[in-house]
Amino acid sequence: MDGHLLTTRQMASFVADGYLRFDALVPDGLNHRASDEMGRLREERFTGDGLRPPATGTPLEACYPPPSVIGEYLRLPGVQGIIRSLLGPDPTFDHDWTHHIPAGTAEGQHLHTDAIADSDDPTFDIQLFWFPHEVRPGEGGTRFVPGSHLHRVQPSALDRYQHIAGEEQFAGPAGTVLVFHHGLWHAGQPNPGPDDRWMHKVRLNPTQPQVLQWDTADLAELHNDPSDHVFARMQPDSVAHTFRAWHPWHGVTTYRNEQVQRARLWRYLTDDDTYDVDHYLTRLEGRARLVGR
Length: 293
Prior knowledge:
The chain is an alpha+beta fold and 293 residues long. Helices cover 32% and strands 14% of the residues.
């Protein structure tokens, strides 16, 4: 796994945006064999035949033993490095789902999250979306809203929303993997193209604190003294600069609240309860101390 862990820059981007993208991460040999196994997973769910998925709570290392294309994919060093960096050691399987969008499909999903209304607990699950075929623009790629993962809502509260400013729709080469925070808003899209689309999603749970699990070689350089806001503004690749990312759907108040949520999550990931961006979280905590909370 050495050499495959995420960097501090990538972790900061995940905290700010709620996702990471790895183009053509899975080799063609696995991609070409994927749809058959994914199809057998769908048969199990809809007919009781086919390939039975792992049980919820199964240690990831025991999921999809050989011979399994999905198991091979999940054991790729690059995929293992992503999982270890975000979840820590010994994650467990939550659930998976194979999305099959036949050519010419006009219907799509409504916008949703794959989570119940979460508490303020900073821990998070991740979801890996593997696209074994090329997805051209407008041909069935997943739609998602960057930066929405910490803006917590009831899943059904998003049903009626369409065309959100700044939303993206995946298009990219075969073997691309998207990694989502479990709270990111997303939806499967229609497939007007001539080819069927397959995508495998797996959700994984942490079992240990998700603290400093990535390659921290660049942490000291990018983390900065949280009180040194002027320096943070001057360093364009700092964590603080990344956390100031403005997504088009933000209003001013929403934007500042998102900065607070990002700082809280970063405190958990780095075990640094003083970290802040632009003093917002520190100010709130100071007021709370005044009234004894």
